[in-house]
Amino acid sequence: VSSDNDSEDFRLKFPLHCLVWENDYRSLEKELPTHNKEEVDPRGRTPLHLAVSLGHLESVRVLLRHGAEVTKENAKNWTVLQEAVSTGDPEMVQLVLQRRDYLKASTALGGVPELLCKIRESPDFYMEMKWEFTSWIPLVSRVCPSDVCRIWKSGASLRVDATLLGFENMTWIRGRRSYIFKGDDSCAELMEVNHDEEVVDTESFDISREIEEVTLDSMQPNEQEVAKRLTTPIINTFLDTKDICFERCKSGIWGWRTDRTEVVNGFEAKVGALSDQTDTAALELSERNILESFLGTVEQQISAQGDLTLEYATATNPTAITPEEYFNPDFDLKDRDIGRPIELTIRTQRFKGTLWMSEEHPLSLVEQVTPIIDLMARTSTHFARLRDFITLRFPPGFPVKIEIPLFHVLNARITFGNVNQCSTEEPADASKLAATPSPTDQSPGEGSEASGTHSAPRHQVSNHDEELLQFAIHQSLLESSGYSPQVRYVCVRM
């Protein structure tokens, strides 16, 4: 009787999950409108996560059609797409990837009017952002670049100059580019000025019309892209920020230590460290782990799920977990879980971020700088990482200098300088001035002279530079160790 009561209890608490477990997609279709499709079960999975982990393609189709959140992570920090890849089912990967790309494209366009409104209402300014990438590993530091982003803001117009374009074939790609944004609530114009080739790419679009044109069918991934997902190591980074707190750095000798202050670009700044900052990696590996001692990380080995074979075991439930066991929060599954068997190495390394906060700075982080970083983050993974960082709870003031960990072996140092000073350290070379607009004689919306102009659509989802950078780091470590182990999947939580 007790078992029957328990069964009835979890079916009442998690009706959608139970239908997913049984792959009763017809009943799931009927019940979805009246239940919370983002409810999390005792194991930290939404109905969509559960359907993907169990390989129930029909239930996945129904959940995606009803708008289930495809970007959420489960309790173990895996995304729906990563779980789909782990099933090895190309059709599952295609479904999830298509929905994720559609959501990213529509969200990016939908947030533009609000961002442009925030930018237009904030005071005008000029600022420089110096990016310096550093590493304590010589093989990696050899490819670490630096860049100075120059930002002009006038009304709803914005111009960003940069020289670091991307990473390809183990080499950082450099060039001189200006990105000019002009827009209002209903339409916008983006100009990309290539000073090296004297070409301007201009795209004018009606935001509402562009949103309508971003359809699910337009985001259909091709077979090659799906195959690449299934055969390429998955490399991500997870930065745990929930327990981060700001602590003032000290200077002086023991007994006479005081709060440390430094002058950064003419502003007195309080120096502080971000404590309890960790980076956790989970890798599905073969026999050897080349990073074990090299990175100096704390490592925990978790073997693949046991060889237990029961009558009800399946490929996606190899240890035959019953629904009564799965949905009971007090039942200890130990090393058992649903999904295909995996072998994990969980690696945790502690990092220290550093902040230089100035209360004298004329700019407002929230009102003036954050909207611009948010806009740039839609096309740049490094700006996206900076955006995630600056949304933490900072002490009062403006972060004139930030040092944050990007990967296990790579840090980024960002310095804000030359505020409202339209100057440049580059020599006034005549040939350069012919191709490069002068900061002192052009407004952010004016662009530059160019030999040709053409348009190109931009709502296609771009590849991530950070994945390529992670690949470069991984390759450098492989070369340094002198052998190439067979790695099936490399999954570092992000």
UniProtKB/TrEMBL annotation:
GO biological process, one term: negative regulation of receptor internalization
Keyword DNA-binding tagged: no
Sorted UniProt keywords: ANK repeat, Cell membrane, Endosome, Membrane, Repeat
Superkingdom of the source species: Eukaryota
Any single Gene Ontology cellular-component annotation: perinuclear region of cytoplasm
A Pfam family: ANKRD13_C
Subcellular location: Cell membrane; Endosome
Positions annotated as ANK repeat: 43-75
Region (Disordered): 425-462
Ranges of Polar residues composition bias in the record: 437-454
Molecular function as annotated in GO: ubiquitin-modified protein reader activity
Domain (Ankyrin repeat) ranges: 159-271, 285-440
InterPro entries: ANKRD13, ANKRD13_C, Ankyrin_rpt, Ankyrin_rpt-contain_sf
Function summary: Ubiquitin-binding protein that specifically recognizes and binds 'Lys-63'-linked ubiquitin. Does not bind 'Lys-48'-linked ubiquitin. Positively regulates the internalization of ligand-activated EGFR by binding to the Ub moiety of ubiquitinated EGFR at the cell membrane.
UniProt protein name: Ankyrin repeat domain-containing protein
Organism: Pygocentrus nattereri
Name of the coding gene: ANKRD13A
